[in-house]
Amino acid sequence: MKYILVTGGVISGIGKGVIASSIGTILKCCGFRITAIKIDPYINIDAGTFSPYEHGEVYVLDDGGEVDLDLGNYERFLDVTLHSDNNITTGKIYQHVINKERKGDFLGKTVQVVPHITDAVQEWVSNEAKRAVTPDNFEPELCIIELGGTIGDIEGMPFVEAFRQFQFRVGKENFFVVHVSLVPEPRSTKEQKTKPTQNSVRELRGLGLSPDLIVCRSENLIGQGVKDKISNFCHVAPSQVVCIHDCSSIYRVPLLLEEQGVVATFRERLQLPIQLPMPKTLMSKWRALSDTIEKLTTPVVIALVGKYIQFEDSYASVTKALRHAARFVERKLILKYIDAENLEEPTEQIDGIKYHESWKELCSADGVIVPGGFGKRGVEGKILAARWCRMNLKPYLGICLGLQVAVIEYARNILDMKNANSTEIEPETPIPVVVEMPEHNPGNMGGTMRLGRRTTIFQEGKTSILRALYGDKEQVDERHRHRYEVNPQFINELEAAGLQFVGKDDTGQRMEILEIPTHPFFVGVQFHPEYLSRPMRPSPAYVGLLLASSGQLQSHLHDPEILRTGKPTSMF
User: Fold this and answer.
1) % of the chain beyond a pLDDT of 90
2) Does the global pTM surpass 0.90?
3) What does R_g of the chain's alpha carbons equal in angstroms?
4) Is 556 a catalytic residue?
C-alpha cells in the first residue's frame, strides 16, 4: 500500500480537496486502484449537525455517513463508493480511544495524545486504506489522505505527529507528502509573493514532514522565476514544484498536474510500476470533458431557490450535478441563486427592490430547482416558487424539501386546504400534509435522519417522465437525508386531484417521487440524486430538468436507446 498525504499551508479553503482528487484521478488513469481519506480536525463526530454556513453542504454516503463535502469530490473524480470511516474527525478518534479506555484495554496506563491518539490515527488509516471502494471488491493500491485545515493549526497537531510517525512505520518508499500553498499576488505590487509558501514549508519541516511535491495555488499563471525561487528556498527540485492557477473548470486541474510531469515524480519517489513516456491517450476522457465544458456557448438559465445562497458550497453537489447535466445536454449553465425569503410578501414591504428583482430572476429563468433545507425560514418563498412553476408550466425539480413544498402548495391551491403545512414548519397545523417520521427521532440530532442509499420502486400503470429518464427501470437506488415525509393519509386526495406519486419506497408507504402528468416537467424527489451524479454519468433527474429547460426533453425521450439503457445514442 502506498500513501499520499495532502497538507495545506497559508490559508484554509485553498483547494486541497480538488488537488487530492486530481492526483487520485491521474494515478487511476495510470491503472492503479485508488481510495481516499479526509481528516477533519474538529471535535464533532461527523458533519451531520453542521450549519451549511460552517463548512458548506453535508455530503451523504451510501452507508448513511454524513461527511465533509470533499468526500463528494473524491467520489465524483474517482468514481468510487466511500464509507463513513473514510472521514476521520478528532471526535471519532477521541471517542474511539475513550471507549477503549472505559473497557480497560489500556491496562491501567495513563492515556495520552502520544502514543494513544496518534496510534489510533495510524491504525484507522491503515485499516480504512485496505477497504474496497469499487464494485469488484478489490483492495486499493494507493490511498490519498487529505489533512484538513492548515499546517500549524493547534487542532491538527496530533494528526501531523501521527503521520510523522507513520512515514517510518510504512517506509519512505510508501509515503509521499504533497503540500498545497498559496502564492498571493497583491494588487498594489502585481508581484507574486513566495514568502508565505517558504514559511509554510519551513513549519511543515519543523513538525517532521518534508514535502515531496509543492503545489502552488495562484490566481494567475506562475512564472518560471517564481517556481525556481520556491524550489531554491524550499529545498526541493524544480520538478517538485507545480503550479495550479484558477481555472474555468475544476476538471482542468488533473490535466494541469499531468502536463507538469507529476506522474514521473510519483513513479520515482514511490517506485510505482509505470512505463514512461505515458501514452498521449492517458487523460483523453478528462481532456474531452474539460474541452467540451469550455466550448459550450448556448445558455440555459436555471434559478436555484434556496435558503443558504450566501455560501455557494452550501449547494456544492447540486451545482455540480447541474453542471454535469448541462454538459450532457450541450448547454452553458447560467445559474441564478435566489434567496427564498426574498420571494415572500414581507420582503416586499421591507425591501421592494430586492423583492421584485428576485421575482424577475425567477420568472426569466428557463427552469427552477428547489433543493433541500431545514427549518421554517424561506419555506413560504419556496412554496411560491413551486406555485409559479406549476401555473406557468415552467420546468421544476424539487429535491427533498423541494418535493414537500410542492405537496403543500398543491394541497393549498388545488385542494383548497388553505392551512396545509408541514409539522416541521407549523407543529400544530390542522392539515399536516408533511409529517415527521417517528422512527427517525430518538431525541438526538446527529445521525438520526433517514440516511443513505435506499430503493425507490416505480409504480406500475403510472406514466412517468423520470422513469423514462432512468431507462424504464422498475426501481432505482438513491441516497436520502430527511426527517419528514409526505403524510400517507392525504395521498388519495392529492392523486385524485392530479398530483401523481409515481415512485414509493419498498414498503409502498413512503412517497419518493411525484410528477404532474399535465405539466411538461414538474418533478419532486424525496431523495438527493445529486450525490450519485458523476461528470461522465450525470443524474437522470438533473438531466431531465436541463433537457426540459432547453426544449430538448421530448426529442430525448423519443430516442429508442434511452428506453433501453437510460442513455441517449449521443452520450459519451
Assistant:
1) 77
2) yes
3) 25
4) no
